[in-house]
From TrEMBL:
Primary role: Catalyzes the reduction of dTDP-6-deoxy-L-lyxo-4-hexulose to yield dTDP-L-rhamnose.
Single biological process term from Gene Ontology: dTDP-rhamnose biosynthetic process
InterPro entries cross-referenced by the UniProt entry: dTDP_dehydrorham_reduct (IPR005913), NAD(P)-bd_dom_sf (IPR036291), RmlD-like-bd (IPR029903)
Protein name listed in UniProt: dTDP-4-dehydrorhamnose reductase
GO molecular function, one term: dTDP-4-dehydrorhamnose reductase activity
RmlD-like substrate binding domain ranges (all copies): 8-294
EC id: 1.1.1.133
First-level EC class: oxidoreductase
Pathway: Carbohydrate biosynthesis; dTDP-L-rhamnose biosynthesis
Family, per entry: Belongs to the dTDP-4-dehydrorhamnose reductase family.
Length: 305
């Protein structure tokens, strides 16, 4: 049972960039159960517990029975490596679609609010500035599975919210997202090549969490784009990051995605329209420069050199 006065929240993918940061930045009235599989993490505070549970092989219903009851579930677990999804479609389907279906079912039968994390990757990238009513058109298997997962959430019978997003931030694991890779490379005096023709609307994970908390606290239902209020190319993002952290921008060069030799096709323009979120949420949608400025502050705290 949740401790008196606390909201009990289950977080899948608790060792990932988003899941771990949610647990680290818990609201004072939240008690969380974070589920990890291969990557162990230590609970950052007394209101967080971490359990090892293979969601693909063990009974998901048992997890809900033994660790609940929950007020909400935040489902962040997914196979996000685009190339791996293409190479191992069976695993991608099991983790991104089948697991989501089981999570939705258990939320529905237990009357638990579900917040599902989706992606800007579900569009073909021909137009950009996609809003919540834009027609998805996946161009790789990762995107296909994430879109299928959204459909499972919508028809599963649980009260839900879906967030489409693209985020960056500091990772508890010893691995880097795009921002972390750029910073680590530049600090190591390594050259960085970034796409000049791939556009996105990245938001710092800390700001994204503010919206996640608001959705869970108020049980705001629906589909929401939570991303930056503006957009840029991957190359411009790297230049902004280098400028903010006083790193050598001359190490960054631009490249077209067409000449990159990537095995799996990616959308060129994944920018999201956040007009709906600006109207609905109390929290303010940040601009990319604001997210990077906050990232700079966090960099001093984490002291990642």
């Amino acid at each position: 049972m949740p401790k008196e006065g606390l909201k009990k929240v289950l977080i899948t993918g608790a060792s990932g960039l988003l899941g771990a940061n949610i647990i680290k930045n818990l609201p004072e009235n939240w008690q969380t159960v974070g589920v990890v599989n291969k990557h162990k993490i230590n609970p950052p505070n007394e209101r967080a517990s971490i359990i090892e549970y293979n969601l693909l092989e063990e009974d998901v219903s048992r997890l809900f029975k033994e660790c609940g009851p929950f007020n909400a579930v935040i489902h962040t677990a997914a196979l996000t490596n685009v190339d791996q999804c293409e190479e191992d479609k069976d695993l991608a389907y099991k983790l991104n679609v089948k697991l989501t279906e089981e999570i939705v079912f258990n939320c529905a039968v237990n009357n638990i609010f579900l917040l599902h994390i989706s992606t800007d990757h579900i569009f073909d990238g021909k137009d950009g500035n996609y809003d919540e009513d834009s027609e998805p058109a996946p161009i790789n298997y990762y995107a296909e599975t994430k879109l299928l997962a959204e459909e499972k959430v919508k028809i599963g019978g649980a009260k839900y919210a879906i967030i489409r997003t693209n985020f960056f931030g500091y990772n508890v694991q010893n691995k880097n997202d795009l921002a972390g890779w750029i910073v680590k490379s530049l600090r190591g005096k390594m050259p960085v090549r970034l796409f000049k023709d791939v556009f996105f609307s990245p938001i710092l994970v800390d700001y994204l969490i503010d919206f996640i908390v608001e959705i869970v606290e108020e049980k705001k239902e629906g589909l929401f784009n939570i991303a930056a209020g503006d957009s840029c190319s991957k190359y411009d993002f790297g230049m902004k990051l280098a400028e903010a952290l006083d790193l050598d921008k001359s190490l960054i060069s631009s490249i077209s995605v067409e000449e990159s030799g990537l095995k799996v096709k990616r959308p060129k323009n994944m920018t999201l329209d956040t007009a709906k979120a600006k109207k609905i949420f109390k929290n303010k949608i940040p601009l990319i420069d604001e997210s990077i400025e906050k990232y700079k502050e966090l960099d001093k705290i984490y002291n990642q050199n």
